[in-house]
Amino acid sequence: MAVLPAFKDGVTVLREHPVILLAGLLFALVGQVTSAGEVVDSWIVSALGVVVAFLIGPFFLGGLIGMALEALEGSKPTLGLFVESGTRFYVSLLGATVLLTGLFFVLVFVGTLVGVVSVFAGFAATGAESGAAGLLGVGIGLLVFLGVFLVAFVAFLFLQFFNTAIVVDGERAIDSFSRSVSLVRANLRSVIGYSLLWIAVWTVAFAPIIGLELVLVEPGLADGVQFDRTVAQAVTIGLAVLVTGIGYAYLYAVHTSYYTRLGSADGGADGARSANA
């Protein structure tokens, strides 16, 4: 069973190599560029932030996974390795990220289109004035939503190891998806358990941040207490960077450990090693 040992490896890696925490915080800081538009109240800044985070994110992800791999192999990761690994695998990671984003966009778009058409078809079939039409429309909408969510989750489940396949095994963008699918098919029950636990850890970590943001930023939720909106947003962004940075460092160390454990058990591809090649 590789799931629990991988999560333990994440703790060990961060305890023995805290420099990985710094890499995680840098990654999180880049991700929070998208929040700058909220602070200055500009959708243009928000849009530019999304583009910047999307383009730079693969570099930080490659560097973070490279450092985690180096630590798991018993060597000492450095920020120099972070830059080297991020640079080496940037093109493949960016290409794979673009493809994956496009896939999920198509899934959501098609699902939404099917949902809207199905709801209108339901109204047309039962009569717009009928109370049953409203119930049918809601029911169809929920079913379509659940269907899209299920398809998206399955896609995530089978493709989630594309990033480690690129950094650990030196796969190209397209091949990284094939490698991920192959690994998941060979270890499906284990991967399902791992994925649910991975998501649960993220959810538990972020729940307090979301709650704090609602209290500080949304008017009326904290009765009798007044907060300066800009200060409140700055506080929540700072806390989000801290929590996200620790989460990135820990969970991608876990992700790398789990991938290498499955790859070893599965007789995975030799590939190129990110740090030593």
From TrEMBL:
Keyword Transmembrane helix (UniProt): yes
Domain of life where this protein originates: Archaea
Record bears the keyword NADP: no
Sequence ranges assigned to domain DUF7847 in this UniProt record: 1-262
Keywords: Membrane, Transmembrane, Transmembrane helix
InterPro entries attached to this UniProt entry: DUF7847
Residue ranges crossing the lipid bilayer per the database entry: 45-69, 90-123, 135-159, 191-211, 231-251
Name recorded for this polypeptide: DUF7847 domain-containing protein
